[in-house]
Amino acid sequence: MSTDNTGFEVPEQMRDFAEKSVDQARKAFDDFMGATHKAVSNVEDSASAVQANAADVNKKALTYAEEHVNAAFKFAQELVKADNVEDMMKLQQSYLRGQMESLGEQSREFSNAATKAVQDAAKAAQKK
Question: For the whole model, what pTM was predicted?
């Protein structure tokens, strides 16, 4: 009866342990990758929401700028037609009052838009 003692045999328990370790490492990696994909998706959704709201704010800003320029031209046209200093002062007062009211309303709208942008981004991040 000849026995070959030169070969090394891995005990069955060691093989089972190694196999379980590899399976656990694979599962941990898969879980990590799943969480990473979810985080990236959340960031993309949040960025999309912020980008959409930023475009709305940009459009509003351009509209407001156009309104202010038009109001300034209208004021200038009225000022040129004024008959005396008293009329000029009334026009000036009316123009400034209108501009202050307009700026107040626009500030509220910008504030609401910024709040909405933050809320939309937070909602997009929570969806995933």
Answer: 0.57
